[in-house]
C-alpha cells in the first residue's frame, strides 16, 4: 500500500483552513449579537453589528451546505 503524502497534506491543510475560517465567522456572528445586547442595555441600537452577525451566520450556513452538497453529490 502506498500513501500519497502530498495529497494527505493538501487535504489536511484545506481542512485546517476551512475549520479556522468557519469558527472565525461564527465567532464574529456571536460578537455582533453581543454588541446588539450591549446596545439594548444602554438604550441604543447596533444595526451594523446585527447585519454583520447575520451575514457571518449566513456564510457559515452556506459553507456547511456546500460541504454537505460535496459529500452527497
Radius of gyration: 18 Å
The gross shape turns out to be: elongated
| Total domain modules | 1
* Count of beta strands: 0
Helical amount among residues, as a percent range?
A: over 70%
Give start-end ranges of low-pLDDT stretches.
Answer: none
- β-strand percent reads under 5%
Q: First CA to last CA: what distance?
A: 28 Å
- Computed structural class: mainly alpha
Largest sheet properties: none
What is the helix/strand order?
A: HH
Mean pLDDT: 93
**Number of contiguous helices:** 2
Descriptive notes:
This protein is mainly alpha-helical and 73 residues long. It is 86% helix and 0% strand. Helix 1 (5-41) packs antiparallel against helix 2 (47-72). The protein is elongated, with a radius of gyration of 18 Å. The mean pLDDT is 93.
Amino acid at each position: 500500500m502506498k500513501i500519497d503524502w502530498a495529497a494527505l497534506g493538501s487535504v489536511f491543510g484545506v481542512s485546517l483552513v476551512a475549520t479556522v475560517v468557519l469558527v472565525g465567522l461564527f465567532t464574529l456572528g456571536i460578537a455582533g449579537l453581543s454588541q446588539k445586547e450591549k446596545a439594548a442595555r444602554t438604550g441604543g441600537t447596533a444595526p451594523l453589528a446585527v447585519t454583520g452577525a447575520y451575514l457571518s451566520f449566513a456564510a457559515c450556513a452556506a459553507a456547511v451546505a456546500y460541504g454537505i452538497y460535496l459529500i452527497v453529490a
